[in-house]
Amino acid sequence: MRLEFTLDEPLWQYDIVWGDHTFVVAVRSHDAVGPVTLNQASMSIDFAVERGGEMVTAIIPLQMLVDPYRAYLNGEGIWYHEYHNNGTHAWVNMRPPHPGVITLVGSSVIPEFPVASIVIAAATAPLLGLLTHRRIRTSRSPTHLSGNRTGCTLWYS
After folding, report:
1. Based on C-alpha coordinates, what's the Rg of the chain?
2. Mean per-residue pLDDT over the chain, rounded
3. CA angle 8, 47, 29 (to 5 degrees)
4. How many angstroms separate the Cα of 4 from the Cα of each of 10, 33, 34, 93, 151?
5. Mapping DSSP to helix (H, G, I), strand (E, B) and coil, where does residue 16 land?
6. Domain locations along the chain
7. Which residues fall within 8 angstroms of residue 128, CB to CB, at 6 or more apart?
8. For residues 28 and 15, is the Cβ–Cβ distance under 8 A?
9. Residue 76 CA, distance from chain mean position
10. 11-109 has which fold?
11. Which of 24, 29, 40, 146 has fewest C-beta within 10 Å?
């Protein structure tokens, strides 16, 4: 077993803007790290490393990309470890063996647009209102006064 640590690791910070949200993704490494991009379709973030062989720690907001993660270098799986999660961010550590593009794939990303949920809510609201109205109207029926002993209520409109 080998234990390694480093001092004065540079911190690279990138703002990821998605709709009206801005997320800060930080990457710590002695390697030069390229810009971080969010790919919503593949539920991943990508960034380049120049030299390889150095430890790289990505600090990922959980509101943007949800764990568990998988790590790839130029499309091939590499060793990684999520060693800290404080409830808002996850720290994912890896050592890419050579230069290239690191891709961290999560289990989900921020939703693209909440329009679908708004449309569904707007479509079901009238149905719920109609069902509630009928239930209230039925429960107020005066069956005990009408002499109807069958339990059925007759309404005339």
Report:
1. 28
2. 80
3. 10
4. 17, 20, 24, 12, 79
5. strand
6. 11-109
7. none
8. no
9. 24
10. Immunoglobulin-like (2.60.40)
11. 146
